[in-house]
């Protein structure tokens, strides 16, 4: 251990940790700087500059020692111990001011308070080691038990002091008493640790047969018994020091302890194997040494409860023993193996466990991203295979992060490993509760996420007057129509009320403008990014100001809300629509016809990718009946394996009674994933061997069917029959109105339960609720073939309403062609939206561009909202929020084809260049 | 007595490298502009295209549809080249003062060579993208690896050659 006096150790023990500490605190400071007050900022600067000066002082001393070839002086150790202890003490007094409680916890990483102790503690421990080594003369014969007794006397004296002297002690003030007691405690801890380390050091010197035996016993105790007991006790006490419940901790502790005790033989191979093992487990010892460093000061108090105190000290003792063992093996092996090989073994061994952990986390990251892609931005044509075991672990940690426990309690995380996981896997981001629960429900069939219904006070708030005014735009051959609405609150109570309704827009009709009277002032609506607008609305709604909000729900359904209404208050508002043909808008049972059949509308000639087919044009199209086929979706979620026979019986009975040929029928076995195949004989055996696991992700199964049906235009269409005992357990987050264009025949799907009853459900509205619970399948559904029956490109619903067709499944819109008050721009954006519904993965990349196009045209899309706010401050907040959402103006211009001129991977270049150097060296020699 | 040799300098350079890599991971486009700005200026001059800068995106060339941001800065190459130059020449320097000067000099030289190499990499990539129909991300990566590796080998061999020449000259003089 004399080697510890080499000043180069200080680079590892002091320079690197403090440099890291600076980096971490710089990152934290950078995040919270803008919300810190002047005096707090001053504290940050003072502590930062002091630490920096100490850091520079240390580096100077290290360089001085190296140049002069001196060993680390005991005076340096005393000075470092005093200065850094004082620094830590003063810091702990101001820590609540340095990071005020007013700072939201999500802005900082976890355990920020513990970082400073952790990163400075190695210096303190090192200083203590240096003092012990310097003050223990090797020439003299020391007795370990004396030092051990002296160390034990410290907690004993502390106990006597607390029991006898403290009650009689009447200091001047409470603060004085507190400071004196803490300083005394710190000194006591240092003396205690000094004697304890000294006793272990004397033992490890291994002089004399008795000491040799005693050293072996202490190795057995500190390396094997204490770690295992400590892990068990920690688990028993509810993981007070961290969640070390993983079996791996016990396995490595057992292995490490065994390796420490196995030093009987002198064989070269045996010692080499031992050395490799000890190098591998050294990261484990270091980990616990670092984890328990901040707790060392309280070990004196804990030593009073003898067992626990000793267990808290075992990482320190194990650390010393491990270093001593490695040094001893190294000294032996260097006579048999080259130095380069030994150093390589040491480095590889030491990084083995961290490397395995990192690789495992990297895998978790891939799995998490794949899962998020699968659930939120799927590629319907792709088959996913997600490692559920890895996902379960990740979700467990993410859930623990959400329900973070405040303060000192660490029972939910593994110190340093959980923050590392958060950084590497989650990029320090948090998943929302709804996402966590949805993912858990899909993959592990846990409790579904329940949205708390919003309390709307909209009873007796009704339209008292409504009128419309349409203007024809000859240039664009379209109409712009204002609907002016007067709303009255007839509620007799004094609560503020709200007006909330929904409007169904026909295809080819969009909202182009909006206003709301705030007092006597007519406030025009601001077109904002949807999430920002909804966030602002909820903020304002909480403080009773005057917002109005319009946004898309699903499909073409619009939510329209005005808030607040006082008793008997009348408020005026208006919405502008842009449309090609005359349309009928129904608002709360008030039907208004907008525009007149003035010109014969034609299919837009300027855009070949998205086409608008008016109701009149549709009248000319030929009606046809496509051939239906059954597409069974069988619930193969967790615990449904007992229903296999019921499924087989029910489906066979259903098919026997059905008039439909089963030739084209299909089967989708659905749990977390959906696997589809043709309905062939022997399907019963196939069903029996399915894996019944996870939740019943019906939404994905239906969307996949609709996607395939729309993108592979054919003369057949699916009739979806869901086979499950309880459709209410199915995972459907919202209705399928966005996919309306994909089911032109009928908006119905069917639920066949295990008793054989068939119920019809509506894809457009609330899919889980049945319409008719004893029904038969409707097989005769007419659709319109476009452009003609000989060359059908799309099937349109036969409903006397206009339709929009995607003529191509891949196209880009030139943002420069998007103009304000232009119907064609609305059509292009609608086409892009339909494309995004079919290809959500692309939608993610195009989000910025699509929002920008909506802003440029003034036409509301499912990504944007019209909002009226009352004050300038609210407008400012909205625009700021929006700017955040769309930050970086130029980024709006980026698209998926934009090439990032990224550097090649660092490791790849390093490895290849390393190979070049290796072969060159080999060639030269 | 403690043997110092060059271990301290190696450790110091490695610590600097690790610290810089860590700082780089925290840096944004603004912080890394000391590398991207000159690269952008050269690219802009050679291709005769103007770019627009935003802290989030970096330098965006709308005509070329490319972005030069933190990930394209050449920082990794700079660090690699710096370590290579510093470690290769350290053995010839005796005093600590000169070693410190060497540290700064290699940092500066590697910085300038990085600008040259990184610009070459981007220009070659642009040439491939603009003149062929080969638009694969792996090709871009492969091209980057090829350019980086070629330049590293060229720099290393040139340095070796100069060192040999210098050593031989000294031996002859002696």
Key features of this structure:
heterodimer; A: 24 helices; B: 174 residues; mainly alpha; three-stranded antiparallel β-sheet; 5 helices
Description:
The complex is a heterodimer of chains A (925) and B (174). The two termini of chain A are 38 Å apart. A seven-stranded mixed sheet of chain A has the order 16-15-14-17-18-19-20, sandwiched between helices. A five-stranded antiparallel sheet of chain A has the order 1-2-9-4-5, with no helix packed on it. In chain A, a hairpin with a 4-residue loop joins strand 1 and strand 2. Chain A has 925 residues and is α+β, with helices and mostly antiparallel strands. Chain A has 24 helices and 25 strands. Chain A is elongated, with a radius of gyration of 37 Å. Chain B has 174 residues and is mainly alpha-helical. A three-stranded antiparallel sheet of chain B has the order 1-2-3. In chain B, strand 1 and strand 2 form a beta hairpin. In chain B, helix 4 packs antiparallel against helix 5. Chain B starts with 6 loop residues before the first helix and ends with a helix. Strand 25 of chain A pairs parallel with strand 3 of chain B.
């Amino acid at each position: 251990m004399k080697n510890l006096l080499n000043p180069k150790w200080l680079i590892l023990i002091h320079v690197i940790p403090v440099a890291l500490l600076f980096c971490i605190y710089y990152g934290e400071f950078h995040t919270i700087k803008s919300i810190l007050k002047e005096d707090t900022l001053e504290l940050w600067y003072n502590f930062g500059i002091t630490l920096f000066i100490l850091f520079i002082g240390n580096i100077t001393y290290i360089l001085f020692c190296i140049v002069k070839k001196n060993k680390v002086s005991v005076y340096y150790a005393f000075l470092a111990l005093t200065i850094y202890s004082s620094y830590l003490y003063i810091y702990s007094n101001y820590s609540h001011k340095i990071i005020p409680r007013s700072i939201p916890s999500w802005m900082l990483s976890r355990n920020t308070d513990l970082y400073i102790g952790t990163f400075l503690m190695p210096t303190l421990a090192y200083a203590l080691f240096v003092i012990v080594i310097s003050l223990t003369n090797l020439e003299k014969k020391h007795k370990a038990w004396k030092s051990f007794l002296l160390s034990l006397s410290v907690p004993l004296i502390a106990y006597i002091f607390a029991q006898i002297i403290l009650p009689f002690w009447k200091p001047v003030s409470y603060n004085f008493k507190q400071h004196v007691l803490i300083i005394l405690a710190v000194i006591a801890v240092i003396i205690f640790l000094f004697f304890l380390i000294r006793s272990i050091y004397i033992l490890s010197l291994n002089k004399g047969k008795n000491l040799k035996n005693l050293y072996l016993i202490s190795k057995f105790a500190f390396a094997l018994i204490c770690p295992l007991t400590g892990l068990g006790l920690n688990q028993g006490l509810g993981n007070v020091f961290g969640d070390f419940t993983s079996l791996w901790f016990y396995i490595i502790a057992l292995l490490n302890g065994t390796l420490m005790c196995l030093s009987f033989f002198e064989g070269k191979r045996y010692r080499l194997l031992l050395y490799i093992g000890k190098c591998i487990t050294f990261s484990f010892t270091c980990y616990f040494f670092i984890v328990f460093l901040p707790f060392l000061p309280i070990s004196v108090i804990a030593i009073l409860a003898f067992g626990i105190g000793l267990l808290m000290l075992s990482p320190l003792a194990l650390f010393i023993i491990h270093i001593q063992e490695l040094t001893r093996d190294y000294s032996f092996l260097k006579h048999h193996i080259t130095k380069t090989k030994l150093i390589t073994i040491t480095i590889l061994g030491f990084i083995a466990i961290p490397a395995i952990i990192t690789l495992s986390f990297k895998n978790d990251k891939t799995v998490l991203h794949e899962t998020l892609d699968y659930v939120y931005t799927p590629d319907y044509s792709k088959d996913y295979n997600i490692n559920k075991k890895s996902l379960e672990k990740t979700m467990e940690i993410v859930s623990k992060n959400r329900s973070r426990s405040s303060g000192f309690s660490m029972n939910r995380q593994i110190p340093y490993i959980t923050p590392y996981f958060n950084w590497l896997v989650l990029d320090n981001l948090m998943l929302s509760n709804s996402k966590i629960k949805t993912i858990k429900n899909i993959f592990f069939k846990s409790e579904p996420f329940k949205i708390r219904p919003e309390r709307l006070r909209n009873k007796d708030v009704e339209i008292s007057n409504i009128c419309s005014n349409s203007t024809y735009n000859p240039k664009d051959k379209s109409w712009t129509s204002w609907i002016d609405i007067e709303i009255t609150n007839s509620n007799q109570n004094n609560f503020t009320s709200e007006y909330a309704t929904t409007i169904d827009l026909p295809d080819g009709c969009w909202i182009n403008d909006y206003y709301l009277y705030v007092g006597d002032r007519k406030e025009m609506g601001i077109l904002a990014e949807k999430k920002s607008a909804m966030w602002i609305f909820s903020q304002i709604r909480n403080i009773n100001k005057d917002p109005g909000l319009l946004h898309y729900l699903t499909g073409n359904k619009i939510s329209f809300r005005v808030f607040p209404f006082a008793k008997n208050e009348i408020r005026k508002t208006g919405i502008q629509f842009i449309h090609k043909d005359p349309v009928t808008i129904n608002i709360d049972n008030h039907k208004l016809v907008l525009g007149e059949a003035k010109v014969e509308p034609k299919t837009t000639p300027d855009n070949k990718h998205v086409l608008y087919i008016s109701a009149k044009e549709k009248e000319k199209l030929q009606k046809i009946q496509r051939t239906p086929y059954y597409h069974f979706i069988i619930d193969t979620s967790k615990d449904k394996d007992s229903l296999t026979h019921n499924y087989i019986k029910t489906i066979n009975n259903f098919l026997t009674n059905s008039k439909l040929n089963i030739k084209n029928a299909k089967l989708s076995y659905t749990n977390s994933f959906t696997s589809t195949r043709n309905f062939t004989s022997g399907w019963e055996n196939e069903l029996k061997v399915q894996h019944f696991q996870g939740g019943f992700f019906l939404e994905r199964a239906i969307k996949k069917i609709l996607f395939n049906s729309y993108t592979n235009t054919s003369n057949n269409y699916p009739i979806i029959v869901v086979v499950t005992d309880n459709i209410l357990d199915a995972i459907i987050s919202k209705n399928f109105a966005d996919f309306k264009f994909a089911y032109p025949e009928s908006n119905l799907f069917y639920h066949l339960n295990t008793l054989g009853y068939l119920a019809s459900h509506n894809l457009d509205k609330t899919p889980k609720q049945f319409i008719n619970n004893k029904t038969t399948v409707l097989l005769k559904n007419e659709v319109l073939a476009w452009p003609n029956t000989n060359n059908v490109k799309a099937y349109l619903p036969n409903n006397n309403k206009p339709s929009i067709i995607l003529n191509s499944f891949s196209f880009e819109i030139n943002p420069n062609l998007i103009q304000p008050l232009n119907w064609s721009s609305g059509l292009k954006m609608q086409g892009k939206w339909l494309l995004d519904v079919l290809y959500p993965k692309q939608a993610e990349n195009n989000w910025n561009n699509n929002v920008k196009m909506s802003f440029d045209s003034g036409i509301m899309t499912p990504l944007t909202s019209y909002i009226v706010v009352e004050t300038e401050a609210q407008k400012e907040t909205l625009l700021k929020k929006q700017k955040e959402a769309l930050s970086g103006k130029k980024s709006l211009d980026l698209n998926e084809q934009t090439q990032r001129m990224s550097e090649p991977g660092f490791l790849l270049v390093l490895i290849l260049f390393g190979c070049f150097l290796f072969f060159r060296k080999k060639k030269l020699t | 007595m403690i043997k110092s040799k060059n271990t301290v300098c190696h450790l110091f350079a490695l610590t600097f490298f690790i610290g810089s890599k860590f700082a780089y991971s925290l840096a944004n486009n603004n912080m890394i502009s000391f590398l991207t700005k000159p690269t952008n200026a050269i690219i802009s001059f050679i291709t005769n295209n103007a770019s627009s800068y935003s802290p989030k995106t970096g330098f965006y060339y709308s005509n070329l549809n490319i972005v030069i941001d933190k990930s394209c800065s050449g920082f990794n190459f700079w660090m690699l080249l710096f370590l290579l130059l510093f470690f290769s020449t350290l053995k010839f320097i005796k005093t600590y003062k000169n070693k410190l000067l060497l540290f700064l000099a290699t940092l500066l030289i590697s910085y300038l060579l990085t600008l040259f190499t990184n610009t070459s990499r981007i220009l070659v990539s642009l040439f491939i993208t603009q003149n062929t129909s080969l638009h694969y991300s792996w090709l871009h990566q492969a091209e980057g690896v090829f350019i980086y590796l070629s330049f590293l080998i060229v720099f290393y061999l040139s340095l070796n050659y100069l060192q040999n020449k210098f050593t031989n000259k000294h031996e002859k003089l002696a």
